[in-house]
Amino acid sequence: MSSLLLVRNGRRAVSVIGGGRRGTDALSGVHPAARRTIIDLSYSAHFMDFQGSSIPSSMKKLVVNKLSPNFREAVAMQTVAVPTPGDADLLVRNRFVGVNASDINYTSGRYDPSVKPPFDAGFEGIGEVVGLGLSASSRFTVGDMVAYFTSGAFSEYTVVKAKESIPVPAVKPEFLTLLVSGATAYIALKRLGDLKEGETVLVTAAAGGTGQFAVQFAKRAGCHVIGTCSSNEKAGFLKSIGCDRPINYASEDLAKTLKKEYPKGVDVVYESVGGSVLELAVKSLATKGRLIVIGFISGYQSASGFPPFRGDTLPVRLLQKSASVRGFFLPHFFSDYREALGSMMQMFAKGELQCEVDCGDLSEERGL
Ligand SMILES: NC(=O)c1ccc[n+]([C@@H]2O[C@H](COP(=O)([O-])OP(=O)(O)OC[C@H]3O[C@@H](n4cnc5c(N)ncnc54)[C@H](OP(=O)(O)O)[C@@H]3O)[C@@H](O)[C@H]2O)c1
Questions:
Q1: From the CB of 294, is ligand 1 less than 6 Å away?
Q2: What is the pTM of this model?
Q3: Which three-class secondary structure state does DSSP give residue 281?
């Protein structure tokens, strides 16, 4: 039997999902049920009837009922019982949730084709702990502020595993931007970018949620950073966060600018747009360049609606597996040549390497 801590909580009821730059309109009009008076239900699962607690018995949430990239078509609002956290869980009253471009990949089942509706929408949130299980109470307590990257965020309350909850110093929407957008840029550039000081990095959709972080992390690594965007206002923002060369592709030709100003190509591309931008990015790579496929937002929606998803393209296949395709041409690696030869000679001398040679012994022409 799980235990629940529902400790006195006189805080003002906050309607779920606040504003911030990326607050969701989809949930406007959601009002939590009236609060009741407060009692302490600590450790007593059999008292867990919410009678008198400040947690309402029911809540609203968005549920994906149909797989579709059209968010409004995919989700519906439901009124359900406020969930009970298990022994190792937290019950979080959401204050802000993040709305990401990736949400439509999620609602359309593109990220995990095995997931079938109905399932809860939204995957990042920040709020306060209002209830928790006994094991979870070894690390958290009611009133703690936490952020999380777990499904079911578009809800007034979400149950989150304590081990997956990130303590935050304040419930600020800025922390939300780090959960997916920031973490994607940080980890992708660190693990796959192999950035070196002085290299050139091209970030597409640079003023977007994750692009803004890629710009800043590449700059911190001592790189020259180029960022694409569609307005002068965004170009100004990119300058303000350290981007060396914002390119407003609405007013200057991206391909021509890259060719003219970066004739040797770019060392790393952090690519979120896909389609013709991806092709241009591949073309613009320098020798030994690296291209990280982050997304393909150009394929999500067009003026004529939601195009069919092309899951069989190379960038999609690579992204779904965090896999890479890398080119190799020996003359580009002569700096590694001496060490490679020396090492192989030694292995051969020690009998650790077999060097099979086809001397033609088995060929029909042998002896002719
Ligand atoms: N791989 C991962 O784990 C991961 C994690 C996070 C995000 N992503 C992906 O990264 C991409 C960006 O996500 P985000 O959250 O940063 O998005 P976002 O904040 O919505 O920014 C996207 C930006 O892309 C630009 N864009 C360029 N061409 C576009 C087009 N045809 N349609 C719409 N936007 C276009 C727009 O900026 P301009 O108008 O200035 O060009 C837009 O503001 C998405 O594909 C997302 O799915 C992937």
A1: yes
A2: 0.85
A3: helix
